[in-house]
Design a protein that fits this description.
heterodimer, A: alpha/beta, seven-stranded antiparallel beta sheet, B: alpha/beta, five-stranded antiparallel beta sheet, five-stranded parallel beta sheet, binds flavin-adenine dinucleotide, binds iron/sulfur cluster, binds FE2/S2 (inorganic) cluster
């Protein structure tokens, strides 16, 4: 049982929680995630740790409401408990001095990007961050990202904030103007796919953090499997970060739709019950 | 490495051209050396891809590349002078050579007695050959010693023609090598009464008994070579069985009914749920014996002077004693007898493959050629009786000694270890990665075979004994072992299981609707996906295909039936005889309408545009020529591929150890290929003195009873270690 000590809305659909988890706070590194289960009957939901406070014994997660579990989570309040939190899971991000790092975050993907941006900055890199979302309301953690970036570019699909256009437009601009040595992209699978295609064109080494469907998160089930460089890998234990240019994004996108119907049904039932 | 220099074999560059013969033909100039304990590369058996596994190992440049080996498999089999296989247990293969070894000699001896013998011989021959040509490989093979529970040393061969080295020489050798205490050393002939079935089955020409580090060891001295067996079951124990058998109450019972009347009784039938009805519920299939049935069945047991059944049980439960307690209607007493050796009788009574263990060794099976005494049913009866009586005894614990110890994982190995350690007064904490305690007993084996409440009662009892359970804690991730040491934990038992599912790496295998058996069963058992109250989904197929022939495959296919599959199929590459699953599960699956496509193997999956699997391309297999062991191996029939409609596929072709914990402990001795932890078979201690290990993480996918036995042995070992500090 882990207590929620703080809750903050970034937007209607994006919520940040600070949760008590002293052991995880102590051992987590940038890039790690946790799996939570809301209650006895809940499913196991993977969420990236965006920050941690060892002294207070807390971790921070940012969640976007998209289905039953994330809606239920977003409905919890300060003082409520999450039934299970397990982690830190996955390999931490490999942080090194690359030179100029281009960090691309799409939607809620900005949350997991934050500790990575921070770590790359602290390792002495020039960091250019691109935050992309459908509209202004969905841009999150801008101030925090600014703190650790040499430059921040905002992209919105509708032009309601920053520049109009998708993330790759911003990427092309940066790449055209300066030498980029390394790229990190985190966001929806489809966004990562296009980020990857962009940097592949310019031969810039890129990592992505995959958010496949998971059950246990410890390598036990293979639900999270995806082909990387022609080989089946388990995202939870072999990843979540992989060389973007080797990921089979089409297979990944296909696998993420495995439960579409059940998810839709469950969501409708959930909505009706509210 | 030793090489006697008199290698007179031609063509020594290519060992495949000179396959060693079973009769040891190549041994003329052999000098077999003890090289020490290393371990052999290999994979575990079973679940349908055994032959592939061999090839896999042989060609294992790449851990995951099953395709490669599948292709090379035939070459492998043709080249091999002989390959060994069985229904159950462990197989070992070594990379560049055509040898397959089986780890668990016990079981081999049980299923095919001659194999156990040949396996060891072959091992030795192979060591010899590698010794000359590839000394490094030879080292790896001897490694074996560590994987083989029983086989720990190979002694130098002096003379091949039936006269073996002089007693004095052997004695001297053993003394030096093992610092044996001489006065205890005796050499007997094979009439030496050890009651050790292995020795009996192997019919050694001579046996040397000596005391090493205060423990009795047996060295079997065959005409060709000598090897040593750890004597797991001490002689004393067997003498105890005899003394107990002589007790008056047993005498009286034996006399009360003539043996002839006993053997005329029919074996009891297990009452069970109707096959059609049970397909639509998740309740336990077997209902358990009534008191009358149990007592009647107990009459069949002859209380033999030489209870061979006991030797068939991996932990040597005192079978005749508990059965006679049932005959005397002392059911609680019967449960107590089982609990002297087994920690989880209600579980083992349900899931042990009795037909391959105790019941295969029963006098009825062996000599009378009649159905065995229903030992498993009776074990279950006694354990259930005790639990339901509400008089389940909580074992007495010694005064708390304040020493903190930790078990990692909460499967049967850990539960057994925790129970013994708590009894010895230790402060035990069990750490579990998942949100439930019980390991495979919870997430793998379904409710209809092992009701969860039975496991929960065992866990509650442990809690009453003071054992602490911490879920959601991954050792190596949430907390490192080093941190636990800093927090005062003095000994560790790693029993993290073999949770990593294997896939076949055939085209289309990542399509939606294709699960590992672990995922499928975890969704249904641990996450209750079939219950609409719970959030986790599962795809309920109409035509469900399960690949494999082990317990996991049977559990998956029967689960699919219960989730409403119209057609539920087992696809297995060998014939039914080779299926490693418990016999009862195969019977139950058939009764429930499961189709068995044996000698069939999927080679590809075809999906629709949404990525949902629609069909499986299946290749037929046929049994090839019998090989030297008399077994016929499956060979793909070219051009026999056909399509089967399927919307859910469950891949149940085996598991490997979970690497999270082993990779997090620096310096831990781990088999580089199998990823199992290497332990001293005597006490299950790893190369790091405060770390013990057991269960599937040491054995690869094995059984509940072996996991439990490991837990007990490791508790003994940890206790001795902690007392020695
Ligand atoms: C390593 C990792 C880190 C993640 N980090 C974050 C994060 O920091 N913030 C955040 O908002 N989201 C994160 N996600 C995604 C998050 O887990 C899913 O959005 C969530 O599980 C959806 O559940 P739901 O019931 O609300 O939606 P559903 O209606 O069940 O599903 C909606 C979508 O989520 C995906 N999904 C469903 N179940 C799972 C599952 N068990 N695991 C992963 N994806 C699933 C489906 O493909 C579907 O597209 C992460 C995922 C992974 C694998
Ligand atoms: C579906 C299925 C059916 C089976 N049927 C039978 C049968 O009928 N008869 C039989 O005898 N055997 C059967 N087996 C095999 C048997 O269940 C196993 O051999 C046995 O459970 C092994 O016990 P264990 O204690 O070694 O590990 P497990 O039972 O595997 O438990 C290991 C536990 O450790 C946890 N863990 C792993 N890593 C960590 C970590 N780093 N920190 C904390 N915890 C960790 C895991 O989450 C798991 O809960 C079956 C197996 C399966 C999967
Ligand atoms: S061998 Fe069979 S008959 Fe003999 S004691 Fe064992 S169970 Fe009874
Ligand atoms: S989530 Fe189960 S193996 Fe990755």
């Amino acid at each position: 049982m882990n207590k929620i000590v703080k809750k903050r809305f970034f937007s209607e659909n994006v919520v940040q929680f600070v949760v008590e988890a002293p052991e995880i706070a102590r051992t987590r590194k940038a890039g790690n995630f946790v799996i939570i289960r809301l209650d006895e009957k809940g499913e196991r939901v993977p969420l990236t740790i965006s920050e941690a406070d060892i002294e207070k014994g807390t971790i921070t997660i940012v969640v976007q409401r998209i289905g039953v579990s994330t809606y239920k989570l977003a409905a919890l309040n300060e003082g409520d408990y999450i039934h299970d939190v397990v982690g830190p899971l996955g390999h931490p991000t490999h942080i090194f001095k690359a030179g100029t790092v281009l960090a691309c975050g799409g939607g809620v993907g900005v949350a997991p990007l934050l500790p990575i941006v921070q770590a790359f900055k602290e390792a002495g890199n020039r960091v250019v961050s691109i935050l992309a979302a459908r509209n202004k309301d969905l841009i999150i953690l801008e101030d925090e990202i600014r703190k650790y970036s040499d430059e921040v570019i905002i992209m919105t699909d509708d032009g309601s904030y920053g520049k109009k256009g998708v993330v790759t437009v911003g990427m092309e601009d940066v790449i055209a103007r300066e030498k980029v040595d390394f790229c990190v992209a985190i966001g929806p699978a489809i966004m990562m796919k296009f980020c990857s295609l962009t940097t592949q064109k310019h031969e810039i080494p890129t990592v992505v953090s995959l958010n496949t469907i998971m059950v246990d998160g410890t390598g036990m089930c293979g639900a999270c499997r995806v082909k990387v460089d022609g080989k089946t890998r388990f995202v939870c234990v072999d990843g979540p970060e992989f060389d973007a240019h080797k990921v089979d994004f089409n297979e990944m996108l296909m696998r993420m739709g495995a439960y579409k119907e059940q998810e839709k049904e469950a969501f409708e039932a959930y909505k009706n019950a509210q | 490495m030793h090489n006697n220099g008199s290698n007179n074999r031609g063509n020594s560059q290519n060992p495949e051209l000179e396959q060693p013969r079973i009769d040891g033909g190549l041994l003329d100039d052999a000098l077999l050396q003890i090289v020490g304990r290393v371990h052999l590369t290999g994979e575990d058996a079973g679940e349908g891809i055994f032959a592939e596994e061999i090839g896999d190992i042989r060609n294992r440049q790449d851990e995951n590349n099953l395709e490669l080996f599948a292709k090379s498999k035939r070459a492998w089999l043709e080249d091999a002078d002989k390959y060994l296989e069985g229904l159950y247990g462990k197989y070992f293969a070594h990379g560049s050579e055509s040898y397959v070894y089986r780890k668990n000699i016990e079981t081999v001896v049980k299923t095919r007695s001659f194999i156990g013998y040949d396996t060891i011989r072959q091992a030795l021959i192979s060591i010899k050959i590698h010794n000359d040509l590839f000394p490094e490989t030879a080292l790896k093979i001897i490694a074996f010693g560590r994987s083989f529970d029983e086989f720990t040393a190979v002694l130098e061969q002096k003379n091949i023609d039936g006269n073996f080295a002089a007693k004095e020489e052997i004695e001297a050798f053993v003394k030096e090598k093992f610092k044996a205490e001489k006065d205890e050393t005796v050499i007997g002939d094979n009439s030496y009464k050890t009651d050790k079935y292995l020795l009996q089955d192997l019919k050694p020409k001579n046996v040397l008994v000596t005391k090493i580090n205060g423990k009795k060891e047996f060295f079997v001295i065959d005409g060709d070579f000598y090897f040593n067996f750890n004597n797991k079951q001490s002689e004393k124990k067997m003498t105890d069985y005899k003394a107990e058998r002589a007790e008056a109450w047993r005498e009286e019972l034996r006399k009360s009914i003539p043996a002839k009347d006993r053997t005329n009784l029919e074996r009891v039938e297990m009452p069970m749920q109707d096959a059609v009805e049970r397909r639509s519920n998740n309740l336990e299939v077997n209902l358990g014996l009534t008191e009358e049935m149990a007592v009647k069945e107990s009459h069949r047991c002859l209380d033999c002077a030489n209870p061979t059944c006991v030797t068939g049980c991996p932990v040597n439960v005192n079978i005749p004693k508990f059965i006679k307690k049932i005959e005397a209607k002392d059911f609680l007493g019967a449960a107590a007898v089982i609990k002297e050796t087994s920690t989880l009788p209600a579980v083992c009574g349900r899931v042990c493959p009795q037909e391959k263990q105790c019941e295969s060794k029963c006098f009825y099976t062996q000599k009378l050629k009649k159905p065995a005494v229903a030992i498993g049913y009776l074990e279950r009866f006694a354990a259930d009786y005790e639990r339901e009586s509400g008089k389940m005894s909580i074992p007495e614990c010694e005064k708390p000694n304040g020493i903190k110890v930790a078990a990692i994982g909460s499967g049967p190995a850990s539960l057994a270890w925790a129970a013994d350690m708590a009894r010895k007064g230790y402060d035990v904490t069990v750490f579990e990665a998942l949100h439930e305690i019980g390991g495979v007993l919870k997430y793998g084996i379904p409710e209809f075979r092992l009701p969860k409440k039975i496991v929960d009662v065992e866990i509650e009892n442990l809690a009453k004994m003071g054992v602490k359970f911490l879920t959601n804690t991954i050792i190596g991730r949430t907390i490192t072992l080093e941190t636990l040491r800093e927090r005062g934990f003095k000994a560790f038992f790693i029993a993290a299981g073999a949770g990593l599912p294997r896939f076949m790496n055939i085209p289309g295998e990542n399509a939606n609707g294709i699960f590992s058996s672990n995922e499928y069963l975890t969704r249904v058992n641990l996450m209750h996906a079939a219950d609409p109250e719970y959030d986790t989904p599962v795809i309920k197929g109409k035509n469900v295909m399960v690949v494999g022939g082990g317990n996991t495959a049977m559990d998956s296919v029967r689960t699919a039936k219960r989730l409403g599959a119209e057609r539920a199929m087992i696809v297995y590459r060998r014939s039914e005889d080779e299926m490693p699953a418990r016999l009862e599960e195969v019977h139950h699956a058939k009764e429930e309408g499961v189709e068995f496509l044996t000698l069939n193997n999927p080679v590809e999956y075809l999906a629709n545009d949404k990525g949902q699997v629609q069909q499986a391309k299946i290749q037929k297999m046929e049994l090839g020529e019998p090989d030297a062991s008399g077994r016929r191996s499956p060979i793909p029939v070219e051009g026999s591929e056909y399509l089967v409609d399927t919307d859910v596929v469950v891949v149940a072709v085996g598991v490997s150890p979970n690497p999270i914990i082993t990779s997090a402990i620096e310096g831990l001795d781990v088999d580089p290929k199998r990823r199992t932890i290497i332990v001293n078979p005597e006490n299950n201690q790893s190369n790091i003195s405060d770390i013990f290990a057991g269960g599937d993480i040491v054995r690869g996918g094995a059984t509940v009873i072996l996991a439990m036995g490991d837990g007990r042995k490791a508790a003994q070992g940890a206790d001795e270690y902690l007392k020695s500090l």
